[in-house]
Amino acid sequence: MKLKLSFLFGFISVYSWSQSTTQTFNSSNLFFVPAGVTSLSVQAWGGGGSGGGASGAGLLFGRGGAGGGGGAYASNTISVAPSAALNIVVAGQTLGTGGANGTAGGNSTIVGYETSILAAGGSGGAANNAGGTPAGGAGGSAAASAGVVRLDGFPGIIGNSAALLSLLLSSGAGGTGANFGGAGGAGLSSLILGNAPGNAGSSPGGGGSGAINSALGTPQIGGAGAAGQVIISYSCPTYSLSSAATTGICSSYGSTATVYVNGSTSSLPVGNYVVTYNRSSPSATGLTANLTVSTAGTGYFFATGLTTVGSSTITITKLTSEACSSIISANNTATVTVFAATVGGTITSIQILGFPSASLDLSGQTGSVFKWQSAISPFTTWTDIANANTTYNTGNLTQTTKFRVVVQNGPFCDVVNSEPITITVNTAPTITLKNNVANYCFNTNIDEIIELGYTTTGNPTTYSIVWDSFSSSIFDNVVDNQLDEIFIDVPFNIAAGTYTATVTVKDAGGNVSSGTTFTMIVTLAPTIDVTTITSVCSSSNSQNTTLEYSGMTGSPTGYYINWNAAANTAGLADQGITSYVFTGTGGFIETIEIPANVPAGTYRGEIRLVGDPSCEGFDLVSIVITNECTSRQVASSKESFSQNGIQADTANLESAENNVSVNSINKVLNIDSSDRNINQVLVYDISGNLIYNKDAVSNPNLVINNLRSSNQVLVVKVVLDNNKVEIKKVVY
């Protein structure tokens, strides 16, 4: 079948017989070499020269111009690169000029191939402006052309002149284009007084005829030389495929897939193609796409419009490269999978009762589970969990943890994380004691209070102390006391030994710490009960006075006295270690040293009992030094007196009972004596500094509400009106 296609405004004609194709160029244009085409057969005709003009004939005379020469012919076979763009040059029509010589026609060639293929144009015919027989234009020269075959164009015919009334006036005809090219323009003739322009030559390459002029007529132009022509012939290869394949796409990235095609180097040669294809979903036929084959045998194109999630079959029906095309019916299908965009989904949890763990379930996702991940505070680093299921059991957690799932739908969509879920673990608080084992030295004649140093984590609010079975007979358990400072009340009658307790703390959520063991090793300090040191007069000499004591625990072997700062400033120096033999029945210590020149005043300090170097007993003492010294008769025998309505004598004085209580409530000290008036109250801080002194109380109770003291343990010394001294410790 012979197929004729006309395009490019009618200036190019394409003829294709099976795989042989011819393209004719009647004007300059580009020619794109089809894929697989490496040689072209080219024929070219040069342009015809225009005819000569005619002018200046007298009243009774006539003049005829000469015809232009026809264009030359050339042919050759040239080698080309597939897909190359060739610039085809076709000589255009050459117009004549009024009363002037004709113009030579142009050359026809291919740019870059001028030495292989070129057809020269014919020369213009001579004008007749003075009479006579002007010469016709020479035909295009084979010598000036290039090609395996080169032929001269035919020359134009000479012009002539006519006398009387320009009878039988004529002009020269144009020359014919070489090798059956276009005819030259026909010469003009006139019986009498003719004026006319020359006739144009026919394409390809016909020369224009000369003009005629007579009887003072206006100048006439020669006929136009015809345009040249280029004819290209070549054989098209047969295109075919050995396979077609494609990759999937993700709908979130658009609707275009890459389709890869393969063939042999001869069936899919290098070049540019247009692919015609059908698409199954959404259905469409006769779609086209550009295909570039840079390496023979393989290439790719883009299939568009894949907007429906799922599978779509691409069927290639034709491959076209310029004027070459082949119907494709084998190995021509590829299936594209269009994946929906990945959706991470949502995790739900079911807390496992009684355990710090949860069962997690992913739902609402689009895509497959790639892995799970977890993160702990501050939740900036995620740790992979090798699990491709939609469910996950966290196992027992020790702290609050976030979980998320990494999901991907197919290999072409993005990896997307699910919304994270937080599994909150209420971590129990902790308590750490500064000393888990501590040695304590206690005086058995006073209550002691000790403070436990500690640090905590987890914001506990209360504490509990539970003693073991041995210790619980001495100490009371503490349950959920407000956590501030932790104090332990040690009763005055505690026995030496090892006492063990477990300390825990609890937070506001009810989470209880692990128990921390506290072991208290108690050593009892030696003790005596003392009264006020016997008053002495201020003296310029050093002197001794006495201190009466009663009762004794432990085995003291001596004592020393530390006076407070005020006493030291007054000159009452501390007394160093002094040996003394104490008895269990009591007695008088007669070696209390008072230095010389201590002014009158009341001075206070503490007497410390030595024996065990790691555990010294102590008691508070005071002395009154006076300037009012008078003689005083001392009874030589015992005297009787009434105590609580019962007759007693001085020998029975120590057996008289009295109870003193000291309580601290809202920063107010309440001091009460059951049946004696209070003579004096002294309050010392934990360092032994006197912070309060009240003389001559003369009442069985005293309220102190203006005490300036921080939170601490205070020592309260109460002197009754019978000089009985009781010492109490209280938490303030």
UniProtKB/TrEMBL annotation:
Q: Which InterPro entries match?
A: Gly_rich_dom
Q: Which domain of life is it from?
A: Bacteria
**Where would I find the Glycine-rich domain in this sequence?**
31-234
Question: What is this protein's name?
Answer: Glycine-rich domain-containing protein
Organism of origin is: Flavobacterium hydatis (Cytophaga aquatilis)
Keyword Signal found: yes
Give the residue range of the signal peptide: 1-18
Pfam families reported in the protein's UniProt record: Gly_rich_2
Q: What is the lineage of its organism?
A: Bacteria, Pseudomonadati, Bacteroidota, Flavobacteriia, Flavobacteriales
What are the UniProt keywords, alphabetically? Answer: Signal
